[in-house]
Amino acid sequence: MSANQRGPENADAAALCLFAIDPSAIKIGKEIGKGAFSVVYSGEFNKKRVAVKCQPKDEHGGIPPFVLKEVQILQRLHHPNVLEFIGAADNRKTRQILILSEHSHHGDLDQLLRNIRKGATPHLGWTKLVQVALDVARGIAFLHEQRFIHRDIKSSNILLDEQFCAKLCDFGFATETTAWDETGDANELGITSKRRKSYCGTDAFMAPEMFLDEDYNENVDVFSFGVVLMEMICCRVANKDGFVMRLPQHKFRVVLSEFQDAMPASCPAAFARIAEQCVAFEPTERPTSADIVRNLEGVLALGDLDSAGPVVLRSFTPTVESCVDNEPQIDEDDDDDDEEEDDDDEDDGSDAGAGLDEDFIREVRTMGYPTGGTRS
């Protein structure tokens, strides 16, 4: 039986210190979230409000390997747009692992967007929404700088604090990409030469190359972020009711007309274009996370994003049989050094294209505001 299976008491010293919090020192309150593998509660620790993620131990009473991996990753990541890790505890009495993090006052982005669509919460306005997007992009860029791929970027894994500052959470599917080319440098696109074949994440946000069981790298996070942007812009749920449907006949690509038809008329064109570029079918045609940060900063610098007045969301008719949200999925990593294969598929015109950074910022400065809705 491995150290991970036996539990933290038999793990190495570095792992042991990660579970040093006394479970009796944690006060657990009401449930505030639920995932496929865990439940999150509000709580209190050292007189500070915290979020407590409760993860069942395995049948042997040990820590599931993916839980240990998540905690080991969390304790290495410190950034304003990554949820702050406080510590973890091994509750032998309840056979649970407790992961403590900062509490997010406004919950997750998915619920916020649903509340806006229902009219229960006012729309934030484009300036605030672009700022939230920029926060997320900065968090993703930080992960990629640290050579991590999140692999499950989605609206429900983005939390909002009291000032609506966005923070990435849930690193259970995250993986480290430490293998670069022999020179130790990234290639000209800034992406790693080591690629993976794991199938994991959530279907509605999953990049086509992962769906199609092809090699992939950190560009899968960019694609997922593009779907998040589309949800933010339209306040719609991806892969439901004809919005950003991911269908095998389209090779799981995003059909841009579904996004454009749902876009509010007041959406800044530059903001929408970033979303479209992120979901390009070809990974090499997507911007890097660093590009996205610069471009969103450029959109904010344009100013007057809310000059058109209140945002009017486009109506839609829910279908009787909507696609249900698929639970997050994961398969084992295939770390063999396979050669990359060329994709000979023809372009059907739905790819967003590339051409970001300074050229993009110069272009968006010439765009009129606001523009949006269905475009030719």
Keywords, separated by commas or semicolons:
single chain, disordered N terminus, ATP-binding, 376 residues, alpha+beta, disordered C terminus, 9 strands, two-stranded antiparallel ribbon, five-stranded antiparallel sheet
Largest sheet: 5 strands, antiparallel
Number of strands: 9
SSE series = HHEEEHEEHHEEEEHHHHHH
Q: Strand content of the residues, in percent?
A: 5-15%
| Low-pLDDT sequence parts | 1-11, 179-194, 334-356, 364-376
Helix fraction bin: 25-40%
Number of helices: 11
**Secondary-structure-derived class:** alpha+beta
Apparent shape: globular
Ends apart, CA distance between termini: 60 Å
Strand arrangement across the biggest beta sheet: 1-2-3-5-4
pLDDT averaged residue by residue: 82
The Cα radius of gyration reads 21 Å
Protein name: Protein kinase domain-containing protein
Pfam family, one: PK_Tyr_Ser-Thr
InterPro entries: Kinase-like_dom_sf, Prot_kinase_dom, Protein_kinase_ATP_BS, Ser-Thr/Tyr_kinase_cat_dom, Ser/Thr_kinase_AS, Ser/Thr_Kinases-Pseudokinases
Organism: Pythium insidiosum (Pythiosis disease agent)
Describe the structure.
A hairpin with a 4-residue loop joins strand 1 (26-34) and strand 2 (39-45). Mean pLDDT is 82; it is low at 1-11, 179-194, 334-356 and 364-376. The chain is an alpha+beta fold. It is built from eleven helices and nine strands. Helix 5 (126-145) runs antiparallel to helix 10 (289-302), helix 7 (219-234) runs antiparallel to helix 9 and helix 10 packs parallel to helix 11. ATP binds at residue 53. The active site is at residue 152. One of its GO terms (molecular function) is ATP binding. InterPro entries: Kinase-like_dom_sf, Prot_kinase_dom, Protein_kinase_ATP_BS, Ser-Thr/Tyr_kinase_cat_dom, Ser/Thr_kinase_AS, Ser/Thr_Kinases-Pseudokinases.
